[in-house]
Amino acid sequence: MWTCIKCFASIPCNQVEASIDDFGIYFLCPHCKRRNRLVNVGKHGRIALMQQERSAP
User: Fold this and answer.
1) Which of 32, 37, 44, 54 has its CA 20 to 30 A from that of 26?
2) Is the Cα torsion angle 36, 28, 9, 46 positive or negative in sign?
3) Are 36 and 4 in contact (CB under 8 A)?
4) CA distance linking residue 37 with residue 25, whole number of Å
C-alpha cells in the first residue's frame, strides 16, 4: 500500500503503475495526480519498490 504525500490517499500498489524518468522512480496519485517518489530496495538485481518515509518538517 502506498500513500500520496499530498492528499494522503491510500493506494494499493497494484492499482497504479510505477514509472521511471530522469528524476527517478515514481507513481502518480490517481486522485490528485501528485508525483510520489519511490526507491528500489531490491537486492542482487531484483526490483523491490518502496516509498520513502517523509521526514518531519
Assistant:
1) 44
2) negative
3) yes
4) 6
Asked if residue 54 belongs to a domain, the reply is yes
Residue pLDDT, tens place only, 14-57: 999 999 999 999 999 999 999 999 999 999 889 999 998 765 55
Q: Which domain holds residue 30?
A: 21-57
Is residue 42 situated within a structural domain? yes
State pTM to two decimals: 0.81
Cα 20 to chain centroid, rounded: 11
The 3-state DSSP class for residue 33 equals: coil
Residue 4 · residue 29 · CB < 8 Å: yes
The count of structural domains within the chain is 1
